[in-house]
Design brief:
- The radius of gyration is 23 Å and the shape is elongated.
- The protein has 4 helices and 7 strands; from the N terminus they run ααβββαββββα.
- It has helices at about 5-40, 50, 95-100, 135-165; strands spanning about 55, 65-70, 85-90, 105-110, 115, 120, 125.
- By secondary structure, the protein is an alpha+beta fold.
- The longest helix is centred in the first third of the chain and has 36 residues, at about 5-40.
């Protein structure tokens, strides 16, 4: 069996680290771009919901809900999906993020009201529900292809650069 050139082997060993670094940078740029667009679309009365939109590599901040998780690759095997960014909204003050995104159904305002499907047990005032004012999904649909292309292009460029410089 023929021996591989040590110089080629050294170059090949540099590629995974360069690719991961490039993917990480592209994912951070893309996540921030998505958050900026989401903040521009979210309805704001107090600004708490707008301020609660963000992204993280780790665990979600308390009181938030995850809007989406973006992985660096398919979830197959150990070598893939090593990078995961979580985009979130909501906080202790802006607990209503999901109500804004998805809307609400009509419901009772009475405290501890027993509500069966379609039949309110209390005869008091009710809430008519709210119309959904989506801020995440329109953004994600608009930016998804661009996000993936950015990652792919940065990784390819980093691999080429690592090969040239290695």
């Amino acid at each position: 069996m023929a021996q591989l050139n040590p110089r080629i082997v050294a170059k090949l060993k540099q590629i995974p680290a360069a690719a991961v670094d490039a993917a990480r940078l592209a994912m951070e740029e893309g996540a921030e771009e998505i958050c900026v667009m989401m903040r521009s679309l979210v309805p704001a009365k107090s600004g708490a919901l707008r301020a609660s939109i963000g992204w993280t590599w780790g665990d979600l901040p308390p009181g938030t809900f995850m809007i989406d998780e973006i992985r660096s690759g398919p979830n197959k095997g150990d070598q893939y999906a090593t990078l995961r960014i979580r985009i979130y909204a909501g906080s202790k003050e802006a607990f209503y993020a999901r109500f804004v995104e998805f809307g609400t159904q009509p419901h009772s305002l009475a405290r501890n009201a027993s509500v069966k499907r379609g039949k309110r047990q209390d005869k008091g005032a009710g809430h008519p529900g709210t119309v959904a004012q989506p801020f995440f999904y329109p953004t994600w649909k608009a930016k998804r292809a661009e996000f993936r292309t950015r990652i792919r292009n940065k990784v390819r460029a980093a691999i080429k650069e690592a090969w040239r410089n290695g």
